[in-house]
Automatic annotation (TrEMBL):
This is DNA polymerase IV. Binds 2 magnesium ions per subunit. InterPro entries: DNA/RNA_pol_sf (IPR043502), DNA_pol_Y-fam_lit_finger_sf (IPR036775), DNA_pol_Y-fam_little_finger (IPR017961), DNA_polymerase-Y (IPR050116), DNApol_IV (IPR022880), PolY_HhH_motif (IPR024728), Rev_trsase/Diguanyl_cyclase (IPR043128), UmuC (IPR001126). One of its GO terms (molecular function) is DNA-directed DNA polymerase activity.
Length: 370
């Protein structure tokens, strides 16, 4: 279930209709590189490391045609696309371009919720220019982004966040798609559940095992059935299958977790080496938390082995973790069941998560002009 969801299990809360836009830059990192280097245009490009231990951070659409995807090992990407061009990431440039894009958002919406450098939700129900049509606002934003950055963006327009994100994915790249209130439930029922934001690969596989392949299949299951099989997330799945999502666009969206990780040039092959390597990672997490006055209850350990298999282990404490020594103790406790090592470790990560916010309650969606 998305961390900032406030969908509950009761459909009785009415609310004012909203006009939501989800803007998603097209292959952002790779597109910036192709913009700045004409020699890369039209070629399959991967942003990331090209070494044996490298990972693809982003792939151009030309590369995606070969099956190259982000988070894919570079050796696998090269195997899928021998003509792939690797480019080292320039995060300072991506952040600068992202700042340009956010400045454009701010001209058209008072409520902007960035999700990452390359995507955001905008609530334009009330907007600085008094434009009645959310679709027109999305057109203007996309035109301004192209004019000022030379890049393309896809946008989805709908009456809630869930559908707006589905809409922005529907016509990528360089697309604009609108899902009006009358079409929301029907649009959802035709899609495979793996396309739903908040349904990851593991959950989609569990749903498929229960005979839930599409939004329609999901809608035909009772709330009790979904809660029995998916716990608290069952309420979220129940309502989105009906096109209902009352999460608000929050410009002050709180940080839900603080994490750090490290990929090692040589695999860690002994328990002592792994324990020693965790120290600087934990230190980095705690320094950020201490500086910002951040406290959390859940510690998560991420381990990626030499064969790229990844496991995560987490533990939630009844009270806030209040010191670096406590994060270290919990991280080491999560590590111990993984020892002795089956094989070398190439990446370690530690995350401290905050308390989840209280869930709200959904209600019937009302009609509006998008």
């Amino acid at each position: 279930m998305p961390a900032d969801s406030n969908i509950g299990t009761d459909g009785g809360r009415p609310e004012r209709p909203r006009k939501i836009i989800h803007v998603d830059m097209d292959a952002f990192f790779a597109s910036v590189e192709q913009r700045d280097d004409p020699a890369l245009r039209g070629r399959p490009v991967a942003v990331g490391g090209s070494s044996q231990r490298g990972v693809v951070a982003a792939a151009s659409y030309e590369a995606r045609k070969y099956g190259v995807r982000s988070a894919m090992p570079s050796v696998t990407a090269r195997r899928k696309c021998p003509e792939l061009v690797f480019v080292k990431p320039r995060f300072d440039v991506y952040k600068a371009v992202s700042a340009q894009i956010r400045a454009i958002f701010a001209e058209y919406a008072d409520l902007v919720e960035p999700l990452s450098l390359d995507e955001a939700y905008l609530d334009v129900t009330d907007n600085p220019h008094g434009i009645a049509s959310a679709t027109e606002i999305a057109r203007r934003i996309r035109a301004r982004i192209r004019e000022e950055t030379g890049l393309t963006a896809s946008a989805g327009v709908s009456y809630n966040k869930f559908l707006a994100k589905l809409a922005s994915d529907h016509r990528k790249p360089d697309g604009l798609f609108v899902i009006p209130p009358a079409d929301g439930p029907a649009f959802v029922e035709t899609l495979p559940v793996r396309r739903f934001h908040g349904v990851g690969p593991a959950t989609a596989a569990r749903m498929n095992g229960l005979g839930i392949e599409t939004g329609l299949d999901l809608r035909q299951r009772t709330l009790e059935f979904l809660q029995r099989h998916f716990g608290k997330s069952g309420g979220y799945y129940y309502w989105i299958a009906r096109g209902i999502d009352h999460r608000t666009v929050r410009s002050d969206r709180p940080r839900k977790s603080v994490g750090a990780e490290n990929t090692f040039f040589e695999d860690l092959v002994t328990p002592d080496a792994v324990r020693a390597a965790l120290g600087p990672i934990i230190d980095k997490v705690w320094r950020y938390c201490d500086r910002g006055g951040i406290r959390g209850r859940t510690v998560t350990l991420k381990v990626r082995y030499a064969d790229f298999r990844q496991v995560t282990r987490r533990r939630t404490e009844p009270r806030f973790v209040t010191g670096q020594a406590e994060i270290e103790r919990l991280s080491m406790a999560l590590l111990e069941p993984l020892l002795p090592l089956e094989q070398g470790i190439r990446l370690l990560g530690v995350t401290l998560s905050s308390l989840e916010e209280e869930a709200g309650e959904p209600g019937p969606q009302l009609s509006l002009t998008l």
